[in-house]
Amino acid sequence: MDSILQCMRCRKTYPIDQVIYACESCGGLLDVAHDLDALKRTVTRATFDSRLGTLDAPYNSGVWRYKELIAPYLRDDQIISRPEGNTNLYNVPKLAKWAGVERLYLKHEGENPTGSFKDRGMTGGVTQARLLGMTRVACASTGNTSASLAAYAAWSGMQGIVLMQNKQIAQGKLSQSIAYGATCIRVDGDFDKNLELVKELSATADIYMLNSINPFRLEGQKSIMFEAVQQLRWNAPDWIVVPGGNLGNSSSFGKALWEMRELGLIDRLPRLAIIQAEGANPLYRAYLTEFEDYQPVHAETIATAIKIGNPVNYPKAVRALEWTSGVVEQVTDQQTMEAKALIDAQGIGCEPASGCTLAGIKKLVEGGIIAPNETVVGLLTGHVLKDPDVTIAYHEDAIPDIHPVHPNRIFTADASIGSIVAILNGDANSVTHL
Q: Which run of H or E residues covers position 204?
């Protein structure tokens, strides 16, 4: 099965085993392009349904179940997998009512091995690194990518290298990178600066870059859409809603949906909605100009996972929006944290960036973009324990300019039954609920 690297701008092609991150002719982003005509003759819904529940590697992975659509050129024994994927799609009627829609499903990527969707991309990227003979892999990260890279590097016997900014790194994410044995370097610069440094590092040393500019990362992340649609029994929803930071997920989702339609796995394309934080919103600003004017921004948001002012996958995200007649919206940190608190209170839990999904859905319904009778699938990007300090600070009303709508505060009691009963009898209604 032939696969190639292809520039999305000038269409120049490169062999799949070339170490390259951008087109040598025009600097455009690269796609991993598969032979879809050949796949049409060999891949059906039944191909993937037959693998559900298997205990055999690599098809027990929620990424490699779709191997033909991710990397058909690989042998099974070349794949590095934890395994990952197989995350739940939650039907959440109470949250649907709050957002104003009849049918809402939340795909929780925080249930991956290291607690975020990054594991889906990392299994693809690290597998490619091994195929290329690499022994060192590196990334710039706001947290989730570094945790995933560190784990997969350790699992594969490679050295993991992480560049991160020297402030506003969630401790839950940093602790993972350290625990998994990566070489962690704090740099006096934001994510965008660190990404520049990783690019330079990969160009001057024998180190493979695993940020989402790497097209093999995005191939793994496509599986989120494959799995969500399969969980809906191959019925495409009306909307896919996703937080937007470096725009890797948005880009991969567009490619996945387009490929599924081309292969006849779905009969129509859902619309894509990308939700950005108000303080990190370069895609949203460009969207308002119909993408005529794109300007990076200085990113500031409590949602550290999407605190990115110059997203590397901007062109691919625009393409995904064009393919799906998609939209872009922004939400405030206050709206994000309120939505996160509601998701948490359902016993699901998520990192702050995931709150953008639910907050964005509500805003799009109120704006008449999403109709109340449409089916919506929203993405939760990371586990609730990725940023526990923010969760506690929110409920204690300790975050400047953000105030809890239904705080679930921590009580203090004397070491007596009477004191505890008094709290239970007098303050039971203070628990966050819908």
A: helix 191-204
